[in-house]
Design goal:
The chain is α/β, with parallel strands linked by helices. It has a single domain, classed as Rossmann fold (3-Layer(aba) Sandwich), CATH 3.40.50. The protein contains 7 helices and 6 strands. The protein starts with a strand and ends in a 14-residue tail after the last helix. Bound molecules: flavin mononucleotide.
Length: 192
Amino acid sequence: MKKIVIGITGASGSIYAKRIIEVLLPMGYELHVICTENGRKVMKYETGTDIDEWIKHLKDHYATIHIEDIQDMFSGVASGSYPYDAVIIIPCSMGTLAEISQGYAKNLLTRAADVAIKENRKLIIVPRETPFNAIHLENMLKLSRLGVALIPAMPGFYHHPQSVQDIVDFVVGKILDYLSIENNLFKKWRNE
Ligand SMILES: Cc1cc2nc3c(=O)[nH]c(=O)nc-3n(C[C@H](O)[C@H](O)[C@H](O)COP(=O)(O)O)c2cc1C
């Protein structure tokens, strides 16, 4: 697996998106980042990071990161013929979840997710909301039945986290495990 689309929405938890990008880049993955308008605002609010400036900075070190224009349906990732291996939406708002579950592919992110489903490629959704209402749960169930992985931003504590970073790494590690990407982001259960 080499090409991954990373979607970032306006749910709380953009710190997870930053971490997965930081971890995947040095591993040699080509990343296509699509951020919603609210995703930009929440990332700035929660982490102080301006996504465009941050990605520009990363690009000085890694030529393999690209930020996509969410309105650009002429981008390669809009097409099923473009060979990306997985789409990870992290964190995923209930709004974007609803659009994907209805096939409402009106921007590049929901289109990339729609393509992943129709092409039987890996789509990982990292939902963040609490409590969930029945609409959220029905949308997740519908997507789960289509083979979409719902990996919630729901950290465990059995690895004895000592910092926020440890908590974030648990969730990111779970996503990499699902994609069979070797990592030591958290101590596996009973793996001393
Ligand atoms: C600080 C902040 C935190 C938010 N956290 C969540 C959240 O955890 N989950 C969620 O579904 N929406 C959350 N929202 C609301 C979404 O940003 C809003 O529903 C938005 O329309 C989502 O749009 P998007 O999916 O295009 O990014 C939050 C909004 C703000 C301002």
